[in-house]
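Hi W.,

Here's what went into the run:
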Amino acid sequence: QQQVKQSPQSLIVQKGGISIINCAYENTAFDYFPWYQQFPGKGPALLIAIRPDVSEKKEGRFTISFNKSAKQFSLHIMDSQPGDSATYFCAATVLGTASKLTFGTGTRLQVTL
Amino acid sequence: NAGVTQTPKFQVLKTGQSMTLQCAQDMNHNSMYWYRQDPGMGLRLIYYSASEGTTDKGEVPNGYNVSRLNKREFSLRLESAAPSQTSVYFCASLLQDYQPQHFGDGTRLSIL
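Here's what came out:
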């Protein structure tokens, strides 16, 4: 049973466009939602994270939107750049339980010139 | 800073062989984790160690064992490797809640 569903599996966006990746979760106990970015041959690295007491968090060109009632959250990358081409994973965890992460299946983003 | 170091980076095994994957972190983190990454399945937690001296099963522990050797080191052992364990294995560490998990660059393991 997949507790965090991520879509799309792959995404192609032109330079300067907006990239949108969506995730939905089932476990209402989740209370921390990080996004990780992974480049080929490297481990994932934290990009941005949100707690469910806020509906939006922005860091530079990256924004997380969170809808608690719908149990959905999304990553928006504004002004997408070729250097943003990577695989993105949403994740969720219940704090206080050793921060075990449940990951989505990943979205491979390609930003074209 | 080295961060999280995993060894080896690549390994090919034959079915039935055993192997230990090594992980060390130099950030004085309390918790450490082992994940496997397979195409289309994201990362799945194999085992974790919330603190030195403790280990617990994650989502997919079958066929694996772990040892938290000290605060810095957390090893993953395959006792009798199977082709289904062909994967990329990532080790991660965490200081405390609300902090990012720091990942190593992975061990790419193929079992023939």
